[in-house]
């Protein structure tokens, strides 16, 4: 089927040639193309020079053949042969340039849009120098802001903070005006204290290079929050041992996961498989009628058009590769769920740029298409949805292990039948009763959040990344336990965003997945997803065992409850302790205790409560 015929079948006017598409794209994007330098349309110019090249070559070969037969020197040329040589050289030069036009165009677009191969987190006009920690110099010349007739950076921090407080200086411009990210954070912090009249003592300011944060991780910085990082492991996964970093403030979490790692290792290790790898973005567009909306759906999902859409999408990056576009209609609105591989980046920015290119192309084919939003929530990002649970988003991973009966008894302090029964009643039936959407597990979000924070991932994506189905069944004659976790939406990356911060990069380095994989693009991010699934498996094993053996409360009393107040009381002198205890005992008189008892419900409230429970509308019997 020809391209024009295919478009007609969807009720779309065929695009005449490549030049028309380029012209439309120029109008829509406002970007220069290399083909703009040609006096004629690209398609016509290509045909003319192809004909000229082969015609001139054929003519010269015929003439030289005749000269060889007649023993005429080849260097003796007439006017026709000279003209043919000139035409041949000119057309040859053009054709070489033509084959390079696509490269030139992408180079021009790259210089306008910025780098494709990493996600664009830079703030316009700012360039933080890594060689000079804390320095932020404007990449575009600008007139410095003045305060009392002098440049802002020549004033003291206290004066600048006062100017921010009274509105003379915008807080967001401090990095650009002061050209020092550390100083800007200190000034802003002081201004916040002035405005709020509250102290920020206890929130650390020193100890972080704020130039690495600007433009990629956080704005309006006033300090950083400290989160403890523990390690669980070694996690024996796919024949390799991993020490898993976990950033958390929940006591017992790392210890519990560590116990699960021990049980896995002593049983021979766990294995994992990545079944799917593709980030998604779902723009929503609108038409005048549902019929036109359906025409777009049929056009986009037609296999004959996929190659064209792939070329348009893939030109945004060396790593972004279009996999699929799935459309759903809601009246005259079309939701296009675009899936693509994104290398070692988590890929939201990368795929968004590719989707923008596809939309620009589709706009030239469907002029009546109205873009509502580049994200229509059919992606679905940072939300627990059925589409992610079924179709997957990011990395879809299954991780499994077989725990030996002896290990279950000695390390986990429970039995195989007890774990199988508990998993069925709690994780499967209990979650179904609760109406869970992808929450058929004990506490997958606990482990996912801890690893995400430690390795610089987007914590908000824990919502869909922790969707997990935990399965347990007795195997090998009922002696051993087969346990698996199925996680369809693990969204991770090893480049971009918070992964570039020193602390998070160190945690990635601990796992051996820091940065991009030079040999196999995407391999590091895939390995990180496997480790996340393996850590979740370990966490599920340990928590379920604690529940089955009824030791959960005891463990949390030991590891997850602060004893500072008790220790402080115990450190008092004995006489003072006795006085405090006596005073406490005196205050708990029988009168106070009776006053602390819960009063009975009023008769009217008690009656209403009984009615709601029984569903009866009749009056209660009188006493």
Automatic annotation (TrEMBL):
Annotated Gene Ontology cellular component terms: endoplasmic reticulum membrane
Membrane topology: Multi-pass membrane protein
UniProt-annotated location(s): Endoplasmic reticulum membrane
Keywords for the protein's UniProt record, in alphabetical order: Endoplasmic reticulum, Glycoprotein, Isoprene biosynthesis, Membrane, NADP, Oxidoreductase, Transmembrane, Transmembrane helix
Compositionally biased residues, Polar residues: 588-597
Reactions this protein catalyses: (R)-mevalonate + 2 NADP(+) + CoA = (3S)-3-hydroxy-3-methylglutaryl-CoA + 2 NADPH + 2 H(+)
One Pfam family per UniProt: HMG-CoA_red
Record-listed E.C. numbers: 1.1.1.34
Residue segments, region Disordered: 588-623
GO terms assigned for molecular function: hydroxymethylglutaryl-CoA reductase (NADPH) activity
Domain of life: Eukaryota
Record-given protein name: 3-hydroxy-3-methylglutaryl coenzyme A reductase
């Amino acid at each position: 089927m020809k391209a024009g015929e295919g478009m007609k079948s969807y009720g779309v006017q065929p695009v005449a040639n490549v030049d028309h598409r380029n012209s439309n794209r120029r109008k829509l994007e406002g970007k220069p193309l290399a083909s703009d330098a040609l006096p004629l349309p690209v398609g016509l110019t290509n045909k003319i020079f192809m004909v000229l090249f082969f015609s001139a070559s054929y003519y010269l070969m015929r003439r030289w053949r005749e000269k060889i037969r007649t023993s005429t020197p080849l260097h003796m040329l007439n006017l026709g042969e000279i003209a043919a040589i000139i035409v041949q050289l000119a057309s040859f030069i053009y054709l070489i340039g033509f084959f390079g036009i696509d490269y030139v165009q992408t180079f021009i677009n790259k210089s306008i849009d910025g780098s494709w191969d990493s996600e664009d987190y830079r703030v316009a006009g700012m360039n933080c120098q890594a060689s000079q920690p804390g320095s932020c110099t404007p990449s575009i010349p600008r007139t410095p802001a003045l305060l009392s007739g002098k440049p802002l950076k020549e004033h003291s921090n206290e004066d600048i903070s006062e100017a921010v407080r009274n509105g003379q200086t915008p807080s967001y411009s401090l990095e650009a005006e002061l050209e020092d990210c550390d100083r800007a954070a200190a000034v802003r912090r002081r201004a916040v204290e002035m405005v709020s009249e509250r102290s920020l003592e206890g929130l650390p300011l020193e100890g972080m290079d704020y130039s690495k944060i600007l433009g990629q991780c956080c704005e309006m910085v006033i300090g950083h929050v400290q989160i403890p990082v523990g390690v669980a492991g070694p996690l024996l996964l796919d024949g390799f041992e991993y020490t898993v970093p976990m950033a958390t403030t929940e006591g017992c979490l790392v210890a519990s996961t560590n116990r699960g790692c021990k049980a896995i290792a002593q049983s021979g290790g766990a294995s994992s498989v990545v079944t799917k790898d593709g980030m998604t973005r779902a723009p929503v567009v609108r038409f005048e009628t549902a019929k036109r909306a359906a025409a777009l759906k049929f056009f986009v999902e037609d296999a004959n058009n996929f190659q064209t859409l792939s070329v348009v999408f893939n030109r945004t990056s060396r790593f972004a590769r279009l996999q699929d576009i799935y459309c759903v209609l809601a009246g005259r609105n079309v939701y296009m769920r675009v899936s693509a591989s994104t290398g070692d980046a988590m890929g939201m920015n990368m795929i968004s740029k590719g989707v923008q290119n596809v939309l620009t192309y589709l706009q030239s084919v469907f002029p009546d298409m109205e873009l509502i939003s580049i994200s229509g929530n059919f992606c679905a990002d940072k939300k627990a949805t059925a589409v992610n649970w079924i179709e997957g988003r990011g990395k879809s991973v299954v991780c499994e292990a077989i725990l030996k009966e002896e290990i279950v008894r000695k390390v986990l302090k429970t039995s195989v039948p007890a774990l199988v029964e508990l998993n069925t009643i709690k994780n499967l039936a209990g979650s179904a009763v609760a109406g869970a959407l992808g929450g058929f597990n004990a506490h997958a979000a606990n482990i996912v959040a801890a690893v995400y924070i430690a390795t610089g991932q987007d914590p908000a994506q824990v919502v869909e990344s922790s969707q997990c189905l935990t399965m347990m069944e007795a195997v090998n004659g009922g002696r051993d336990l087969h346990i698996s976790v199925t996680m369809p939406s693990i969204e991770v990356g090893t480049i971009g965003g918070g992964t570039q911060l020193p602390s998070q990069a160190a945690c990635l380095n601990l796992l051996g997945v820091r940065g991009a994989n030079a040999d196999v693009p995407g391999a590091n991010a895939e390995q990180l997803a496997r480790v996340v699934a393996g850590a979740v498996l370990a966490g599920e094993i340990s928590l379920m065992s604690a529940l089955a053996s009824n030791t959960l409360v005891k463990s949390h009393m030991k590891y997850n409850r602060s004893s500072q107040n008790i220790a402080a009381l115990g450190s008092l002198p004995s006489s003072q302790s006795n006085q405090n205890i006596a005073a406490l005992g005196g205050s708990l008189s029988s009168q106070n205790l009776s006053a602390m008892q819960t009063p009975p419900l009023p008769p009217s409230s008690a009656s209403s409560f009984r009615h709601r429970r029984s569903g009866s509308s009749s009056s209660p019997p009188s006493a």
